[in-house]
Amino acid sequence: MTEIVTGLSDLDSDYRCFSSYYNVNSIPQELRVSLPLTLYLCAPKWSILELRKVTLYRVKKMRLWNGWGNENSDLNMELNSGLRMLLKALVGSGTALPQATLSDVVAKVPPTRLAAHPLINTDPEIRVRHARGQSLPDWLDMHSGDVNTFPDGVATPESSAEVRTLLDHARAESIVVIPYGGGTSVVGHINPEESERPVLTIDMGKMNKLLHIDKESQLATFGSGIAGPALELSLIHI
Questions:
Q1: 96-203 maps to which CATH number?
Q2: What is the CA radius of gyration of the chain?
Q3: Which of 73-82, 93-102, 164-173 is modeled with the greatest confidence?
Q4: Distance of alpha carbon 200 from alpha carbon 127, whole angstroms
Q5: Which end of the chain, N or C, is less surrounded by CB atoms within 10 Å?
Q6: Are 192 and 201 in contact (CB under 8 A)?
Q7: Is it the case that residue 68 has pLDDT exceeding 70?
């Protein structure tokens, strides 16, 4: 039997479970995305079998703009003195890079070269957050503020039709397109290069729905923006 949920409990790093009597409305709407999933958790409580209807919500977390992990995390990765001594012995003394703030890097973002379009966001901060991947050189560039190329805009399509519209627009306007999945690339292919043509990053994160399920073959088709934890949770009730 599954232990009953008595309030708010973590299912994993991205999902939280709210019992039917928990005030879900206390969570800001912009941080709440209802999943297509309802669980019925049951557990023996003394000699009584108790059933509770539970709905899962994904709580959006803002990823760090300059490294792995989420903002406002209490995870501390500071090296202890022993590791510092070991690194010094192996590679020598190091010099810390300057620590740039998000506002420092946002201030470096040049004006966009893209014309206004209803599907494209040209806000400087979102352009910073899509400017680099997750390789060590990317981290060092972002931490130190040594970033000089940014996409001119970011699109977050929610359907194949919107992707088609964006690609047609890019072809017509000679725009360089960068497809962006989870943003965890370590090989630099989501990093904008210097170009005389404007650059558009297409973030597929909102195309994350279950599209088709073949139970006989046990094959599921999802949108290209689905993340692993969301995929697993969506399959629980099938």
A1: 3.30.43.10
A2: 22
A3: 164-173
A4: 10
A5: N
A6: yes
A7: yes
